[in-house]
Write a structure and sequence with these properties.
The complex is a heterodimer of chains A (about 325) and B (about 325). With about 325 residues, chain A is mainly α. Chain A is built from 14 helices and no strands. Helix content of chain A is about 75%, strand content about 0%. The chains are: A mainly alpha (about 325), B mainly alpha (about 325).
Chain lengths: ~325, ~325
């Protein structure tokens, strides 16, 4: 129990840091004032309500969603390198958003955000089918390479679109690495609801996924229907990843780093792991975002780049431990 | 002589790349420009398409050869400098040089970046007392590639807008605005390295028969591996220095070249890979700059769109064969 309290405390600290640290350092007094007696003339109050709080909410939603998505993908594929970013699910959602905004213009952000879900679903289905992810017995190399190929394909298409439309580089930057800085323009509340739905679905299917990891015959003996469980997990991955991308853009490596940590802290029970991963994901993303605001102030390093720089070494450590081709990986 | 087929294809591609584009010109104009050195044909060839096509041929050839070398040494069709992060490392080094205003010849910078990436991949995959399986190298290489791309994106955000656009085009892999210096550079370096690679054919073919047999023939297996890997990294860097980290050319060229020529001998396969690389890059560039009226896309867009499905197909083939 103490572990849970410690993690909750860390999350609270990260949220506090996200609110107070930045180009304009703000004291806690200013917060209390802004909440109790909001003054639209006071720039500190405006910063808080219009920028910092939406940003905090976006970080909470996207981080928690990606943590859950990471745990789901890693347990369904039994592959410690599975991550919505590395496997191209983020890219699929971001690609659909980008195509939508180029074709339809920026008419309605909330309606546009819905496009993230078919994008994520198609990418997830493609990478699992092509990478053999659902068979569970394939080595980690194939799934990771399939993800890399999908990412490269979508990157090429996006480059072409961006160059054809002669739009600013900002679209491209959005595509390459997500950020929380546009939070106020994104439908955070709606996506929080969708991500929550994905989380509930994940919790419902958790026993089935655990049974699946015992192996085909044994799990069928326990009465699990593999097709149904996998489809459920895929829907949950799509909902959480799509929501995260609609809020913050593609953020890679978060879903890679968080699950092993969650397992270490919460133990090998999938439901506990999922809840823990949601908390840790939010904590890590908020910290990465805050760090990105500090390291090169006054300019900002995008949160997606910070998570990639943090998560790259984690990938290498895991890849080094796996001995693919040298027996069971 | 199916090798002749590759030569004919290369000549045809070169001719098409010189004649076609946003503005196509009739063959007579090209002929007049080539023979008399005057007129619009000579202008286009001399200033724009000539160096561009020649650079593309050279860069494609060195990338293709580099891929074939790694695929042979590691005995895995998925092992290629673009999959294993070496080209990303070379690209990162060049972006870093641009961002920090560090002036050095680009091939040198690219080679340094590629070599550091390769050493990191080898070092991180290595475990004392264990043989390093090629798949671990590929996996660790993918990770290094991810990290290098993340750093490149990070550095790009430091650049002012105009330079960032240029850097972006460059990172995709592009043959736009190449001059004769680029062509001379890649061809000069390429020829030296091709000779270096061909000089190692004998030991490499012994290595192909198996490590123990090669060691029995008195070959220092580890030393040969390192020399071959160094040659491969330099070849890839020579290509990246003039064309950027164009994705998947190195990966596709070896099998494609062999499909075209049907070469059995190792030297034949390596040369086929070089030819196929040149073919792929020049045609990809032609498609990229002709696809959208009024706009030239970078060649890396086409090789990415072509190469990713190839990689996926290759994965499922390897899977069926139980190679993964």
């Amino acid at each position: 129990m103490t572990r849970w309290i410690v993690v909750a405390g860390l999350l609270a600290l990260a949220a506090l840091a996200s609110l107070t640290v930045g180009v304009r350092d703000m004291s806690l007094d200013a917060y209390l004032q802004a909440l109790t007696a909001y003054d639209p003339q006071n720039p500190a109050h405006v910063t808080l309500m219009a920028i910092r709080i939406p940003r905090l909410c976006a970080g909470l939603v996207a981080g928690a969603a990606l943590g859950v998505a990471g745990v789901l993908m890693q347990s369904v594929t039994r592959n410690p390198l599975a991550d919505p970013g590395l496997l191209g699910v983020n890219a699929g959602a971001a690609f659909a958003l980008l195509v939508g905004s180029t074709l339809l213009g920026r008419a309605d952000e909330a309606a546009l955000a819905l496009l993230a879900f078919p994008g994520a679903a198609m990418a997830a289905a493609a990478v699992f089918a092509l990478g053999g992810g659902l068979r569970g017995d394939v080595g980690p190399v194939r799934l990771t390479l399939a993800g890399a190929a999908l990412n490269a394909l979508l990157l090429s298409l996006v480059t072409a679109i961006v160059l054809i439309r002669q739009d600013s580089l900002d679209i491209f930057r959005f595509w390459v690495a997500g950020s929380l800085s546009q939070a106020v323009a994104r439908p955070v509340a709606e996506m929080a609801a969708v991500a929550g739905l994905g989380g509930v679905l994940a919790l419902l299917f958790a026993p089935g996924i655990e049974a699946l990891s015992l192996g085909g015959a044994l799990s069928r003996g326990l009465g699990t229907r593999p097709g149904r469980v996998q489809a459920g997990a895929l829907v949950a991955v799509t909902l959480t990843t799509g929501a995260a991308v609609a809020v913050a853009g593609p953020i890679a490596f978060l879903g890679l780093m968080v699950p092993p940590l969650a397992r270490m802290i919460a133990g090998h029970r999938l439901r506990a792991e999922l809840v823990m991963a949601a908390m840790l994901g939010a904590t890590v993303l908020l910290l990465a975002d805050t760090l990105g605001r500090v390291v090169m102030a006054p300019s900002e390093v995008r949160a997606g780049i910070m998570t990639a720089l943090l998560g790259g070494p984690v990938f290498l450590v895991i890849a080094r431990r796996l001995r693919p081709g040298a027996g069971a990986a | 002589m199916r090798g002749l087929l590759l030569v004919v294809l290369l000549l045809g591609a070169t001719l098409a790349a010189l004649l076609l584009g946003q503005v196509s010109m009739p063959f007579s104009m090209l002929w007049e420009g080539l023979t008399t050195g005057q007129g619009p044909g000579a202008m286009v060839i001399g200033n724009i398409r000539g160096p561009r096509v020649l650079t593309g041929l050279g860069a494609g050839a060195v990338l293709g050869l580099s891929g074939a070398l790694f695929q042979t040494v590691l005995r895995n069709p998925l092992a290629a400098p673009d999959v294993m992060g070496f080209t990303s490392g070379a690209g990162l080094a060049i972006i870093a040089a641009i961002a920090f205003g560090f002036s050095a010849p680009m091939p040198l910078v690219a080679a340094a970046g590629g070599a550091v990436a390769a050493l990191l991949v080898a070092g991180l995959s290595w475990r004392p007392g264990h043989a390093t399986p090629p798949l671990t190298l590929i996996l660790v290489g993918l990770g290094i590639g991810f990290l290098c791309s993340a750093f490149s994106t990070f550095l790009m955000t430091l650049l002012p807008h105009a330079e960032a656009v240029e850097a972006q085009r460059w990172l995709t892999g592009s043959l736009a605005a190449r001059n004769w210096t680029h062509a001379a550079q890649v061809w000069g370096l390429g020829l030296v390295l091709v000779i270096a690679a061909l000089a190692q054919v004998r030991v490499l073919s012994a290595l192909e028969l198996g490590e123990e047999l090669a060691a029995g023939l008195g070959i220092g297996v580890e030393r040969v591996r390192w020399t071959l890997a160094a040659t491969g990294v330099l070849l890839a860097a020579a290509g990246v220095a003039v064309a950027g980290p164009v994705p998947f050319v190195a990966l596709m060229s070896g099998p494609l070249g062999q499909r075209i020529t049907g070469a059995r001998s190792l030297a034949g396969r390596l040369l086929s890979a070089a030819g196929a690389g040149a073919l792929v890059l020049v045609l990809a560039d032609l498609a990229a700059r002709g696809a959208v009226p009024g706009l030239q896309l970078p060649a890396g867009v086409t090789t990415g769109i072509l190469g990713a499905p190839y990689l996926l197909w290759r994965l499922s083939r390897e899977m069926e064969r139980g190679g993964l």
